[in-house]
Design brief:
334 residues; alpha/beta; TIM Barrel; Four Helix Bundle (Hemerythrin (Met), subunit A); 2 domains; eight-stranded parallel barrel; 18 helices; 44% helix; 14% strand; tRNA binding; RNA-binding; DusA; oxidoreductase; EC 1.3.1.91
């Protein structure tokens, strides 16, 4: 039986090279209830690689979802089972990534052309696990502009038992645009996500793409079940400090920026002691790089970033660097 989990009203998107386990712990110190997603892990990497390296995470990260990339139902079922065994709260299938590497593997956004295959993948994973299996997808690929395309995709996959769809409200352009351009150039069509909720009222529809402010989140939540933040959550993470009270009714006081910095110190000490000297070579920068946006918009933010980016002190692995960075923000250091 599933543990009691908060609703997916707010979540942080899976972002390659960004939402690793250290980033997720940092985000969890800002918001207690927002769902966190791993970077995409390919089925091949799990089946043929170091499972612990890909799946290990900290207990404090819950609720946390494992995003898988792949297109072979049997392999995805094995990987979903591994994810459940390691303690993840959800398995998410990537049907939205447009990178060339993903295209060569015939998964990611390519799968939107193969709704029946996605349905088979979802069914295989659902048969293998007891936790939720969800799908993250685009609204179309290349020059497909019709709403009917994404409606039919969702309908086919829903017939296989998927109840939650995370809709990146842009097309994926498979040729001619980089992954970064694919996050910026294709126009956003939030109304497609809204229409999906109208056509499939029993499904959980979560909208993603270009969302940056609390006012925008509020507006989307009038139309759909949840909002997934991407780059804004990384570059301006303190935006999430209001999420617990505003969207989850949590009366606990939100942490200050200084509280969050200090809360990361025990984690950094523990991680360096565990992984820094045993051949795995964890560097402090692997953790602190995710914290550079914490002071975004505040006077002195540049000094905070500069101190936290001191390569000599980072190489020395002294977590007191965080407290020194705080000292560069006198309005917070007290």
């Amino acid at each position: 039986m599933n543990k009691t989990l908060p609703p997916r009203r707010l979540s942080v998107a899976p972002m390659m090279d960004w939402t690793d386990r250290h980033c997720r712990v940092f985000h969890r110190h800002i918001t207690r209830h927002t769902w966190l997603y791993t970077e995409m892990v390919t089925s091949g990497a799990l089946i043929h690689g170091d499972v612990a390296r890909h799946l290990d995470f900290s207990e404090e990260e819950h609720p946390v979802a494992l995003q898988l990339g792949g297109s072979e139902p049997g392999d995805l079922a094995k990987c979903a089972k591994l994810g459940e065994q390691w303690g993840y709260d959800e398995i998410n299938l990537n049907c939205g990534c447009p990178s060339e590497r993903v295209q060569k593997g015939a998964f990611g956004a390519c799968l939107m052309n193969e709704a029946s295959l996605v349905a088979d993948c979802v069914k295989a994973m659902r048969d293998a696990v007891t936790i939720d299996v969800t799908v993250k997808h685009r609204i179309g690929i290349d020059d497909v502009a019709s709403y009917d395309f994404v409606r039919d995709f969702v309908g086919t996959v829903a017939d296989a038992g998927c109840r939650t769809f995370i809709v990146h409200a842009r097309n994926a352009i498979l040729k001619g645009l980089s992954p970064k351009e694919n996050r910026e150039v294709p126009p956003l069509k939030y109304d497609y996500a809204y229409r999906l909720k109208g056509d499939f009222p029993d499904l959980e529809i979560i909208v993603n793409g270009g969302i940056k402010t609390l006012a925008e989140i509020d507006a989307h939540l009038q139309q759909v079940d949840g909002v997934m933040l991407g780059r804004e959550a990384y570059h301006n993470p303190y935006l999430m400090a209001e999420f617990d009270a505003r969207y989850y009714g949590d009366a606990a006081p939100e942490k200050s920026r200084a509280d969050i910095v200090r809360a990361m110190l025990p984690y950094i000490h523990e991680q360096l002691a565990r992984y820094g000297d045993n051949g795995k070579g964890l560097r402090m920068n692997s953790i602190t790089r995710h914290m550079l946006g914490l002071m975004a918009g505040m006077p002195g933010a540049r000094h905070f970033r500069q101190t936290l980016s001191d390569s000599r002190r980072l190489a020395a692995g002294d977590p007191r660097l965080l407290l020194d960075a705080l000292e560069r923000m006198p309005q917070l250091a007290a």
